Amino acid sequence: MNKKLYRVRVVLFVMAENESDACVAATRAGFECTARKAKNIDPEWRDAIPYNSDDERICSEILASEILAIKRHAIRSRPYPIKPPQYIKAAPSGSSMPVIAPPCLDSSSKNLDISQRLAQ
């Protein structure tokens, strides 16, 4: 399973004699936090390697690659309505195959049906 970039916000109060001891106490503490998928990156984290990373990519690179993957997936899964060219007509009733009428260069034959066009 691939790791994704998450934004985790933690507020923690610890008792300590100084800031250094407070940081040590905070890293040892078991605490609850909330996490959500990262949608943007704070400026101070753009060029930082996130904690628990498996490679050397920085946060902005990871988020950019995740956004690109989402866009690629959306493009692949989007149903594109394709309008057929004018010379392809709907299938006649009782048939599953459309009628293909090649375009005529002769403007006098515009109103002729397919059998008349092919007879020319």
Structure write-up:
With 120 residues, the chain is of the alpha+beta class. The protein folds into 2 domains: 72 residues, no CATH class; 32 residues, no CATH class. Helices cover 29% and strands 10% of the residues. The protein is built from 3 helices and 4 strands. The mean pLDDT is 75.
Q: How many strand segments?
A: 4
Radius of gyration: 31 Å
- Please mark out the parts with pLDDT under 50 across 5 or more consecutive residues, or reply none: none
Largest sheet at a glance? 2 strands, antiparallel
Averaging pLDDT over every residue, what do you get? 75
Strand order of the largest sheet: 1-2
Silhouette: rod-shaped
Strand content: 5-15%
Q: Quick recap of the structure?
A:
This protein has 120 residues and is an alpha+beta fold.
Q: Which labels suit this protein?
A:
120 residues; alpha+beta; two-stranded antiparallel sheet; two-stranded antiparallel ribbon; 10% strand
